[in-house]
């Protein structure tokens, strides 16, 4: 299974937290990463997003470009645990690649849990993508880090 963690792009400050929208810079970041993802994702990939406006806008950039729909999942809202996110997407046994558009610190916890088995305070930059993959080798389940990229490198 491919698990693509995509942190929402830069958002404005303020309250309520779930209503915070992307800044102009954030909109550009989301478009740039959406273009990269669209060029690399298989057609079978699913997109899921937090209900927060900034995550919805980030996911929408890819959905529009790829002519796909995305699903909103409360299980990846701000404050979610790594285990909640992994359960919601079916890691590591899911059949389709999944793009998870979410938040810090949750996505950092997810990445560290997948790679080390522990929730550690790893930081994922705004609008960055961490692409992880599960595989079985010699009867052993493994996690592979395929790529980490942020919009400043595109």
Task: List the main descriptive attributes of the protein structure presented here.
154 residues, Rossmann fold, six-stranded mixed beta sheet, single chain
What's this model, at a glance?
The protein has about 150 residues and is of the alpha/beta class. It is built from four helices and six strands, in the order E-H-E-H-E-H-E-H-E-E.
Task: Describe this structure as you would to a colleague.
This protein is an alpha/beta fold and 154 residues long. α1 (24-40) packs across α2 and α3 (82-89) crosses α4. The chain is built from 4 helices and 6 strands. 32% of the residues lie in helices and 23% in strands. It has a single domain (2-153), classed as Phosphoglycerate mutase-like (Rossmann fold, 3-Layer(aba) Sandwich).
CATH first level: which class?
Answer: Alpha Beta
Low-confidence runs (pLDDT<50, min 5 residues)? none
Calculate the mean pLDDT score and round it. 96
Q: What would you report as the Rg, rounded to the nearest angstrom?
A: 14 Å
Strand content bin: 15-25%
Secondary-structure element pattern, one letter each:
EHEHEHEHEE
Overall structural class, as computed from helix and strand content, comes to: alpha/beta
Strand count, sense and barrel status of the largest sheet are: 6 strands, mixed
Number of domains: 1
Just name the CATH architecture.
3-Layer(aba) Sandwich
What distance separates the N and C termini?
25 Å
**3D shape:** globular
Spatial order of strands in the largest sheet:
3-2-4-1-5-6
Give the proportion of residues in helices.
25-40%
- What is the tally of helical segments? 4
CATH superfamily: Phosphoglycerate mutase-like
CATH fold naming: Rossmann fold
Number of strands: 6
């Amino acid at each position: 299974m491919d698990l693509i963690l995509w942190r929402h792009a830069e958002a404005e400050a303020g309250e309520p937290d779930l209503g915070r929208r992307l800044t102009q810079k954030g909109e550009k970041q989301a478009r740039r990463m959406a273009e990269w993802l669209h060029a690399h994702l298989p057609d079978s990939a699913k997109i899921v997003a937090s209900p927060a406006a900034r995550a919805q806008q980030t996911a929408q950039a890819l959905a529009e470009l790829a002519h796909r729909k995305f699903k909103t999942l409360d299980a990846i809202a701000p404050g979610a645990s790594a285990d909640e996110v992994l359960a919601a997407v079916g890691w590591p046994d899911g059949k389709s690649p999944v793009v998870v558009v979410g938040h810090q610190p949750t996505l950092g916890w997810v990445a560290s849990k997948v790679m080390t088995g522990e929730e550690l305070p790893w930081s994922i930059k705004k609008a960055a993508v961490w692409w992880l993959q599960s595989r079985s080798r010699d009867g052993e389940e493994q996690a592979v880090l395929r790529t980490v990229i942020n919009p400043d490198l595109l």
